[in-house]
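Homework help board

Subject: predicted structure for assignment chain

Our instructor gave us this sequence and asked us to write out the predicted structure in token form, then describe one feature. I got the tokens but I'm not sure how to describe them. Can anyone check?
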Amino acid sequence: MQVAATSIVFLRYAMLSMEARNATDDRTLGELFYYLREELAAIKISQSLMLLVDTLRQVINQLPLLSQEMANEIINTFLRAIPHPLKQKLLLCA
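My token output:
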């Protein structure tokens, strides 16, 4: 009889502590964490580098003081400054 009563008390404590954690801890938002993780895993580093280069190209092209040749030179200088392993991934993506 003592074992059953102790088991019920432990079970109630576990349920109450789980409810308290769900109410106060943001990490227990259910599947939202897993959706975010899957979305981030879907964006590879090569794709993110390509997004950065495209964004840089768009920003530079919108500057009125730069010619097209100067904008291309800035982008080429940026691409030369990227570390070699990242440059290889970027070339695979392009």
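Reply (TA_rk): Your tokens look well-formed. For the description, you could write something like this. The chain has a mean pLDDT of 76. That's the kind of observation they're looking for.
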